[in-house]
Write a structure and sequence with these properties.
three-stranded antiparallel β-sheet; alpha+beta; 16% strand
């Protein structure tokens, strides 16, 4: 195959331009995948902390410890220095996990913020006047009268 005059060496120049662009695109795909995975790890840690803090007679410290242990086991290198915040009231628990994903691309810092909340497990006595079965006197479980 004969090349026209003056076109020698273009394939090397094209490869020199396209290769860095393809490498950047591939690294961007990996960075987004790491960020996506980090979101799932942070959400799972928040849910674990929420489950522990919601338990009957549990504390916010128990939820904090469970979430931090979960992050240490699964995401210590993925989310270095992640912070866990637990807020527990008499009726609800909220666990918030914040961290920055490890970076592949220089200068790109992707943050992860995930929250899980739920009701606190607690004993609530039945209202006065309810029978032990939870059905008011004079009513049957089918909803009809007691006749």
């Amino acid at each position: 195959m004969v090349r026209p005059r003056g076109e020698g060496g273009y394939s090397v120049v094209e490869a020199a331009v396209i290769f860095p662009l393809l490498l950047f695109l591939l690294m961007t795909i990996f960075q987004v995948a790491l960020w996506w995975h980090a979101r799932h790890v942070a959400q799972a840690a928040a849910q674990e902390g929420s489950r522990a803090a919601r338990a009957y007679h549990a504390s916010a410290a128990a939820g904090q410890e469970r979430a931090e242990d979960y992050l240490h086991a699964l995401g210590s290198r993925l989310l270095p220095g992640a912070q866990v915040t637990v807020a527990r009231t008499a009726t609800t628990v909220t666990v918030h996990v914040h961290g920055t994903v490890v970076g592949i691309l220089p200068g790109l810092r992707l943050a992860v913020d995930e929250t899980s909340s739920g009701p606190v497990e607690r004993y609530v006595p039945p209202p006065a006047g309810l029978a032990r079965s939870g059905v008011p006197p004079g009513r049957t479980r089918s909803g009809g009268g007691g006749r």
